[in-house]
Amino acid sequence: MLVNYPFSAAQDNNWVHEWIYEAVSLIINNLNSATAIPNWPYVLPREHRNKLTTRKTIKGLLTNFENIAVQLTEEQRNKALLLIDSQNNIAGLLAGETVPLVVEEELKSIIDCLKLIFFEGFRLLKETGSRDAHYKAIYDSLAVKTCPFCGYEAFEAPGQKREDEDHYLLKDKYVTSAANFFNLVPMGGKCNKSYKLQQDLLFKNNIRRKALNPYGTIKAEISLINTTPITLLDDKPDWNITISPDIEETRTWNEVFSIEERLKETVLSPNYEAVLREVSDFLQCVGLNHNSSNAQVLTELVKLEQYKKRNPEQGLGYLKDKVVGMLRFHFESDNSLVVALIRDALPQIEAA
Ligand SMILES: [Zn+2]
């Protein structure tokens, strides 16, 4: 992704997940130490008890959990707790440092029960307003209000129709992270429903892979410097998109969201003519004409590139500064086709 989400957006709103985790751990630990389990609502952490005492569904689900957990051995209960811990170490899982645990047959009943509990937690995120607060914190943090997974899908303002809240790690596989905001990421509808779909970020063909952490610090940069801007066969550039840093995490992102393909076909090619027109219009506006020297043209191209970088466009035009930069680079390198392309668009001046 091109921009990371603030860690605090997940951390500050994660209390539903946290109190479920605390209640479940308390039940397991008390069963293990043969200590009485507090009745509802005292099984909930004191901090959020008042907000949740009327939630009958979760009350019933926790009672079920207790009834199933009591039939298991201490070792089995601890295994279940370990599985919850591993599934919720989202940063560790994405970085390839935490091993995703497989649900053993003996734990199936308790994990099925935990699934219902954490899915109910996910539902409560909406009802408790946590989901809106989480989205607002993320939306407010974005300098450009677009989906950071593709860079161009517009994000609706808080209070409007909600953007997709993607379970970054699939909720049907990593069931106990279903209500954890560190696993929940606002995402444009196209990225979510047409590209990511049910792909598992942690595995491809059963081979473990790393993936970018939306709440982490690594993000991707795009460069077009290796693009050949004009070819003799086609008037469209032979786009060469370089994604950096070139690490497994960014390669997974490119693969899962078809980034290169989408940028070429949807963002770059259809808007190339518009960039060329803009360059030509800009050079004319600053008073250049057919008699201007290449050095004068280059000076103005550098200015335009800097201006575009400081004032990036949104939506489908968001890579325009990079396209201008690519043209400037090849003009400066004296690529004769690019020099001709830019110069041919300069206005002719009648000889005096
Ligand atoms: Zn997107």
Structural commentary:
The strands form three sheets. The chain has a two-stranded antiparallel ribbon. A two-stranded antiparallel ribbon has the order 3-4. The longest helix is centred in the middle third of the chain and has 20 residues, at 108-127. The protein folds into two domains: 7-208, no CATH class; 222-352, no CATH class. The protein is elongated and about 95 Å long. It is built from 15 helices and six strands. The protein is mainly alpha-helical and 352 residues long. The structure holds zinc ion. Residues 147, 149-150, 153, 188, 190-191 line the site of zinc ion (ZN). Residues 147, 149-150, 153, 188, 190-191 line the site of zinc ion.
Which terms summarize this structure?
single chain; 352 residues; mainly alpha; 2 domains; 15 helices; 6 strands; binds zinc ion
Judged by helices, strands and strand pairing, the structural class is mainly alpha
- The ordered H/E elements are HHHHHHHHEEHEEEEHHHHHH
Question: Which quaternary structure do these chains form?
Answer: single chain
Report on the biggest sheet.
Answer: 2 strands, antiparallel
Which runs of at least 5 residues are low in confidence (pLDDT < 50)? none
Approximately how much beta-strand content do the residues carry?
5-15%
**Relative helix content:** 40-55%
Brief rundown of the structure:
The chain is mostly helical and 352 residues long. It contains 15 helices and six strands.
